[in-house]
Amino acid sequence: MVKENSNADIQADVVIIGAGLFGGLMATELTKNGLSVAMIDSGPVVDRVDSVIRFKDSPTKNGNSPYKKEPYAPIPEEGDPTDYYVQEGKGITDPTKRVAFGALYLRNVGGTSWHFTGHAERMYPEDFKLKTAYGRGEDWPIDYDTIAPYYAKVEQAWGVSGNDTCVAPNPHPYPLPYTPLTYLDQQVDQAAQKMNDSIGPMPHCRNSVPYDGRPQCCGNASCRFICPVGAKYDGSVHVFKAVDLGAKLYSSHVVHHIEVGDDQQIDHIRFKNYTTPDNPVEGTARAKIFILAAHGIESPRLLLMSKNKNAPNGVANSSDQVGRNLMSMVGMNMWAYAPMPVYPYRGPVNATGAFWQLRNGDFRKKFASIATIIINGGFDPTNGPLDEADHAVDHEKLFGPELRERVYTNTAAQVYFDNSVEVLPNPENRITLAWDKLDATGLPRPKIDYKIDKYTVEGVYISWKRGWDVLAKMGARLDKPNGKPLPKPTRRYFNKLVKENGIESGAAMIAGTTRMGNDPKTSVVTPYCRSHDHDNLFIVGTGTYVTSGSVSPSLTAAAISLRAAEHIVQTFQKSEG
Description:
Elements: E1 10-17, H1 21-32, E2 37-40, H2 48-57, E3 86-87, H3 125-128, H4 130-134, H5 144-158, H6 183-193, E4 199-201, H7 236-244, E5 248-250, E6 253-260, E7 266-273, E8 281-292, H8 295-305, E9 334-337, E10 351-355, E11 370-375, H9 384-396, H10 400-412, E12 414-421, E13 430-438, E14 444-449, H11 454-474, H12 491-501, E15 537-539, H13 554-576
Parallel strand pairs: 1-2, 1-8, 2-5, 3-14, 8-15
Antiparallel strand pairs: 4-10, 6-7, 7-8, 9-12, 10-11, 11-12, 13-14
Helix pairs in contact: 1-7, 1-13, 5-13, 6-11, 9-10
């Protein structure tokens, strides 16, 4: 455990708000270069053993189940994100008018990386120049070549496993051997090849061999939500590396205000220390440089809450772009039963294999990029066999040996495809503040407005059709291995499903809300993540994204954050020298 500083106030060269994936990486880089660093996080330190036990005892076993829920650090709940997000309208609507926003995140030391997939793909070069390449979206102010050296540094720091066959751009050496495809992946690949598609392995920040003091993956069925052995990288790794180098960590400290001085510099921040939850203590933190690394919802929320005479629209918001251009990938997943055992639950339960096609190419002129992965955890990585048993007992009245055989046969045949489809930036997609809906600490909850355009809807349709076509090539069935045939994936049937069920927005990616750019009138931060409005404020994370692509977001945001950290070191040393 990290000893909490007993003083109410904090002073350092650099104060980082958010001790997660990006804050921890930056703290390590800054501390080893001689800067004094204080990391402030709203949530508690995670105890891995307690979290595994909590997950084991949970009846739902979802993404948030392992983690202690503190009233001073509320988060959206899986299955009912509206208990935190405030969203207008109810029921299913046309997705081009409204989509229920369900992206999840955590507030604790290590952040959302505790329950992320562990996938670590680089973005494609065209993702940075989408407008130039395909006439869609916008171009970033940086390109792939600018960020490539930082990709390599983060891959080394995390211990990314992969090889030149991985479903990722620009083949290059990885620090660790790749995580092999499972038998399930191989069976899907045989069907995909009949359609001129193919399956490749995913790069993982999940140890394929022991690395950096952490063991190799043992394929535990809880690994999507809590890795019991620490083989999957999470942000706390570098948080505590930074602490070992001399950085200070202040957990359970909720920052609620950023104060801007008359000179437009950040003067200080204000927080409440909930180390003793029943008796929170108000405090301030002062620094020469402030870094906001609180994720794509909490960062703009804090900026917007911090209105004062020197920042009447909120901090860093002279452009009125803070909170706008919210992006989170959408999709329509599918599942079916193979006619023979394909044996899910082998290897990391999230995914080892993914479809190559439809991630990048000229098709992006017509419809959005698609990332489809093959879930190794069946229909439900933790409760799947129990769900099969419940259905067999309730609907077919099976017991004894017949029940055992049904559960085994069905579970062994489960095939699940997860589709993530790119969403383009739209200033009407945004987070604002619900001052009439306060959280337990008296702060406004985030209000979300979200919808998608026809370009993305078409991508959802193409991904859905491709999935059903591959399942059909496998000879899959709808309700059991020898059951009902699959529906024909016609556009009419797709439109019916959209009308009845909507389109899901439940990806953990939350991007675009503090976008980078060269023009202070249309962006929040510079290409180095420095606020256009306040020279001593840096804002990092996926919020700086200009476009989303369809690949897992964390590696790119970490690379951008590391680049910003190097820039801070150079700037600080120059100013001090």
